[in-house]
Amino acid sequence: MTEDLSPAEAYAAARARATEQATALAPFREMYEFGLDPFQIEACRALEAGKGVLVAAPTGSGKTIVGEFAVHLALRQGKKCFYTTPIKALSNQKYADLAKRYGSDKVGLLTGDNSVNADAPVVVMTTEVLRNMLYAGSQALLGLGYVVMDEVHYLSDRFRGAVWEEVIIHLPESVTLVSLSATVSNAEEFGDWLDTVRGDTEVIVSEERPVPLWQHVLAGRRMYDLFEEETDHGGRGASRREVNPDLVRLARMENQKTYNPRDRRRGKMVREADRERERRSRSRIWTPSRAEVVERLDAADLLPAITFIFSRAGCEAAVQQCLYAGLRLNDEDARAEVRSIVEARTAAIPDEDLHVLGYFEWVEALERGIAAHHAGMLPTFKEVVEELFVRGLVKAVFATETLALGINMPARSVVLEKLVKWNGEQHADITPGEYTQLTGRAGRRGIDVEGHAVVLWQRGMDPGALAGLAGTRTYPLRSSFRPSYNMAVNLVQQFGRHRSRELLETSFAQFQADKSVVGIARQVQRNEEGLDGYKEGMTCHLGDFQEYARLRRDLKDRETELAKQGAAQRRVAAADSLEKLKPGDVIHVPTGKFAGLALVLDPGLPAGRANGHRGMEQHDGPRPLVLTAERQVKRLASIDFPVPVEALDRMRIPKSFNPRSPQSRRDLAAALRTKAGHIVPDRHRKGRAPAADDREIARLRGELRAHPCHGCDEREDHARWAERYYRLERDTKQLERRIEGRTNTIARTFDRIVALLTELDYLRGDEVTEHGKRLARLYGELDLLASECLRDGVWEGLSPAELASCVSALVYEARQSDDAVAPKVPSGKAKAALGEMVRIWGRLDGLEEEFKINQAEGVGQREPDLGFAWAVYQWASDKSLDEVLREAEMPAGDFVRWCKQVIDVLGQIAAAAPKENSTVAKNARKAVDAVLRGVVAYSSVG
Asked: What is the model's pLDDT at position 403?
């Protein structure tokens, strides 16, 4: 109390209040109805003191307040502020927030396909837009005082992460950087790097959630707490959180009742459904249905909720299941309000398109308070779902994990159906970082007292493993930075080769690599001390045991080498046998996922490959397309044939056979089983082992027997020490190679890229040629391929629709490869141009191999994918949405997104193409107009 203060203390307190009132932070704090958290105040004070800041805090904790303070400072100081986000949806959302606070005259938006008030003092943009500005030396950078990088942990992203590092490295020194990140375990390391490249940077880490999160498991009709109730009630971890013993007992009880998998023989398969029903009736352990989960959450007052389902089809199915179950989460007033908002937001969409887009089924679900949210939806539909959810008019959303990435859609509860998801290559457990990101949506600040994360019980669930996921709050930030062709020419153009190399060595990727070298060097030192000890342990009084051990190792290595040669010879024989196969041959696949009887539909010889056929690589050998006896059409690889294969019989393949038709596959597979199901394939007999007749092996065995150490009574003890010695020596050499490989890795990759670009006449020393200047304006994964196509005139004389179809091959990547059928492409000039693009890619691929540019490391040009060429050609030719989507078999959201990316690259091509004696620039602009219509034009988020 002030009356208890001494006069001196009261004076000091008054001075402190006066000083606080004189700061920019004081009026900023008054703009918010709630008080700022300590970490927000600390970050804002550091910013006002002229420092850069890195703020790492959980989802929903309010770190964007710090970004908004940077906006406040810029306007107060008469400077510009750029607010960057990773995705267009976030940019649109942040633009709306800032325009509402500061007025639309002071705030602009730049997202590639949206440009609003671009000269405003505050501009919200995607990170790529700022990167392009920096390389182009844009006049908009004049007067720039602050850059906010929201969701800066995106620099870990394998495909786009490099952009964040490019921006951080190339921003002018005078710009103050505000980096906002999710909670990462190496924030201090990232802060050290920022300090190195940007100057004085304050690192502020907050691990406290603004709304406490309770973790649950829903099994049957009961909701179990994941952890036992803590005794310190929100303290700083004074008592350990133990897994709920009820859950442990539940898992143990279920495991006892689970049937033995070895019982699944032919006779017992029939009784599996009966056993499941019996188990469910006897026990209260089962996975509730999606409708049951929503009803359970509604009864417990835990809505609104987001249920994460790692499948688009699963999200749509969940909505239908809730509708069939008769769920209604909205009253009549809410239903009317939903319809009013939906009709207003979709008024621009023509009636004929609404039917194609599944509008009426979508609206019915929305009126009941239920919706899906995933990348396959029309962007306008996704925006409506987000708006209704924030307003509380949609209470149950079924979403893929993309919703967790930044969109402001907090809920009271988050539900995870499974802890496994498809990562593009295989089904893998979700990581602690992904779990934190997903469950971070639970708990709305200022609305909910607590948030709830609910995991559905699944057979075989381990409560301990789930507790490990839930208890690991952080994940490390790993750089994904790699130089690209476009980056190389832009850097050389601005800084020259030597300075560019130095700049790349300041990247976070190199910083992490160099830092890791210190630890590896220490390990090498420890290993060398261990080698001295092992050498002493293998000392033998009869002779040089090191020499004897080397003879043993040479013998083992020779035996291994001969075994490998035998395996290689078998592979060659197998490949030769594959080349003799013809359509209609009945074969037995000896191993692999599709082992068993199969019918050859196409031998898949290299000479017969179609231009642009996905998944078909050079030097890959025959890859026969077969129909298995289980009705699957699959393209096999050499790995499926470790031994030679012979035709067991022959069958006629009907001309009407369609590999995409389930009925066609079923009929032909039945004929295959009837024709050859009784044939037992000959077993491949192994010949005499090569080692039996090898002179080198005979010599080494003779020397071993003649060596004095061979007669030592402790020979095997010495040999064990020798084995440890050589194993540690091998590990030490590997560590030394890692040290050598990690030093200057980024710069070495840059050198190889520069060498290739010099070979192609894009660079001549520090000079960027005209071809190089064109490449500098082309951003994208296939930047060099696009530049080579312009250089060779591949797209000259194409119509706008044909040009759009060719450009689609530069951006499109199928979600899943389809080897059964080659993609449909337009005929005529477009088909010839697409074929030429694939040929040029083949030439570049050979050059990359020659210059040791490795696509597996994220550098280089992937094969162009022709899977979207026909769809965008049809659309640019003014076909209806219904016709295009029906033929493309593609969700509307995906179609719009790929069209937006085609438009973006067409714009780049229009700017980069020759202005004289060329039709490409003019037709690229016409193609933009042809594609930017209908659903593509009225979808504001791409």
From this structure: 62
- Contact between 797 and 919 under an 8 Å Cβ cutoff? The reply is yes
CA distance between the termini of the chain: 56
Residue whose C-alpha is closest to residue 479's, from 857, 57, 183: 857
Query: How far is residue 686 CA from its own chain's centroid?
Result: 45
Return the SS3 of 476. coil
Write b or e for each residue in 698-716: b if 16 or more Cβ atoms lie within 10 A of its Cβ, otherwise e: eebeeeeeebebeebeebe
- Check: CB of residue 67 under 8 Å from CB of residue 148: yes
Q: What are phi and psi of 473, to 5 degrees?
A: -80, -20
What's CA 100's distance to the chain center, in Å?
A: 33
* Tokens 């998801």 sit on residue: 421
Say how many C-beta atoms besides its own lie within 10 A of residue 638's C-beta: 14
CB hemisphere CA count around 577 (13 angstroms): 20
CA pair distance 114, 405, nearest whole angstrom: 21
Hey, how many other C-beta atoms are within 10 angstroms of the C-beta on 436?
23
Beta strands in 2-143, from DSSP E residues, in sequence order:
52-56, 80-85, 107-110, 115-116, 122-126
List the beta bridge partners of residue 455. 217, 416
Angle between helices 290-299 and 312-324 (to 10 degrees): 70
Q: How many CB atoms lie within 10 A of CB 412?
A: 23
Tracing tokens 């030592």 back to the chain, one arrives at 712
Burial of 149 (0-12, 13-18, 19+ CB in 10 A): buried
Helix axes 783-791, 800-811, angle to 10 degrees: 150
> Rounded to the nearest 10 degrees, how much is the dihedral formed by the CA atoms of 763, 767, 771, 774?
120
Phi-psi region of 220 (alpha: psi -120 to 50; beta: other; left: phi over 0): left
Provide the CB-side half-sphere exposure for 354 (13 A, CA).
Answer: 14
Q: What is the pLDDT of residues 129-145, one digit of tens each?
A: 899 888 888 888 999 99
As given in the structure block, the two tokens for residue 31 are 């703009």
pTM over 0.85: no
Q: Pick out the chain residues at pLDDT < 50.
A: 1-2, 231-239, 258-270, 278, 281-282, 608-619, 819-820, 941-942
Q: Report CA-CA distances (Å) from 840 to 188, 570, 790, 920.
A: 45, 35, 11, 18
Length of the chain in terms of residues written:
942
Tokens of 446: 């200022």
Tokens 């499948």 correspond to 311
Cα separation, 316 vs 811, whole angstroms: 27
Question: Alpha-carbon distance 19 to 308, whole Å?
Answer: 48
In sequence order, the β-bridge partners of residue 149 are 84, 179
**What are the tokens at 742?**
């990690």
Token look-up 């690589």 returns 617
- Give the three-class secondary structure for 677: coil
- The Cα–Cα gap between 654 and 599 comes to 12
CA dihedral 630, 633, 636, 642 (to 10 degrees): 20
Longest dimension (CA), the chain: 106
DSSP assignment string, 900-926: HHHHHHHHHHHHHS-SSS-SHHHHHHH
And the tokens for 749?
Answer: 């990759």
Q: Which residue has the tokens 């960027």?
A: 768
Query: What pLDDT does residue 257 have?
Result: 53
| Tokens standing for residue 617 | 């690589």
Give the pairing of strands 451-456 and 413-416: parallel
